[in-house]
């Protein structure tokens, strides 16, 4: 009697496992409906910075990660977006390794006693946000709503650079969705400045009427 199972599940990716070019999985950062994101580090290089390793089941019905990789590759030579370190196939998964993004603007605000920022910091944010949005539009991609959960990659203690304006899995080519106008983007950025400079909801409501 043959006791060998017909099929054996390959199982999920777990902490301590190696993926791709020897990237060691350290911990789970987020779990979504399409993808799981891990913190990973290149094995054998103690000085290597932690990275984000995103995986998705390799199934015909799942293509969010492939879209994200396509978008990130098309804007690799621009500022403000995470860089791809490696991508490929691991067992029954597709994966991509990118720079590990830092806390969101909202996370940073919660670390402040007043939950607000100086106008100087917010204007720096606004300048970089508009640059990043312009890059997406010029590359013929749409983006989700601009909000305070966008992620950052630290450049220096006093300067932050935008890494992602939205979940890249939601980005589509221009013919698929309605293009948001530059004016709408600007209003979204102004809303964030108002919220985190004054911390007063009534001022945000005033901007919403614009």
What's the architecture of the largest domain, going by CATH?
Answer: Orthogonal Bundle
CATH class of the largest domain: Mainly Alpha
Number of strands: 8
Helix/strand-derived class? alpha+beta
What brief labels describe this structure?
alpha+beta; Transferase(Phosphotransferase), domain 1; 2 domains; 6-stranded antiparallel beta sheet; two-stranded antiparallel ribbon; 24% strand; globular; disordered N terminus; ATP binding; Prot_kinase_dom; Ser-Thr/Tyr_kinase_cat_dom; protein kinase activity
Structure report:
The chain has 210 residues and is of the alpha+beta class. It has two domains: 18-99, Phosphorylase Kinase, domain 1 (2-Layer Sandwich); 105-208, Transferase(Phosphotransferase), domain 1 (Orthogonal Bundle). The protein has five helices and eight strands, in the order E-E-E-E-H-E-E-H-H-E-E-H-H. It has helices at residues 64-74, 105-110, 119-138, 182-198, 201-208; strands spanning 18-19, 23-31, 36-42, 51-57, 84-90, 93-99, 151-156, 159-164. A hairpin with a 4-residue loop joins strand 2 and strand 3. Helix 3 (119-138) packs antiparallel against helix 4.
